[in-house]
Amino acid sequence: DWYNNEHVPLRMNHLQSFLAGARYFALDSQIPSWVALYDVDDTATFSHNSYVRLRANRSPREANLVKRLSILDRQT
């Protein structure tokens, strides 16, 4: 599974600013059906080089998946 074996480990194991994360599945069959929440020590994390590089250098699998997402809403 991409999320558990690639997405989360790249953030939680390699970016010190990511403190915790959780993913939830909607039981009401509404869209979006999943939400992921992360605790970071500072929202400036999202502009740090390590995070920017992570997003710019996605694996082919992740790039393909992100391209197909109908909803991708990042909020801080």
Strand content: 15-25%
Helix and strand content put the structural class at alpha+beta
pLDDT under 50 segments (min length 5)?
Answer: none
Span between termini: 26 Å
The mean pLDDT is: 90
How many H/I helices? 3
Number of domains: 1
Order of helices and strands: HEEHH
Major pleated sheet: 2 strands, antiparallel
Strand order of the largest sheet: 1-2
Helix content: 25-40%
Total E-strand runs: 2
Oligomer: single chain
Q: What's the gyration radius in Å?
A: 13 Å
Structure explained in plain terms:
The protein is an alpha+beta fold and 76 residues long. The chain has one domain (2-68). The protein has three helices and two strands. Strand 1 and strand 2 form a beta hairpin. It is globular, with a radius of gyration of 13 Å. The two termini are 26 Å apart. The model has no long low-confidence stretch (mean pLDDT 90).
Helices and strands, with pairings:
Blueprint: H1 2-12, E1 18-25, E2 34-40, H2 49-56, H3 60-68
Antiparallel strand pairs: 1-2
Name its key features:
76 residues, alpha+beta, two-stranded antiparallel sheet
Task: Give the structure's gist in a few sentences.
By secondary structure, the chain is an alpha+beta fold. Helices cover 37% and strands 20% of the residues.
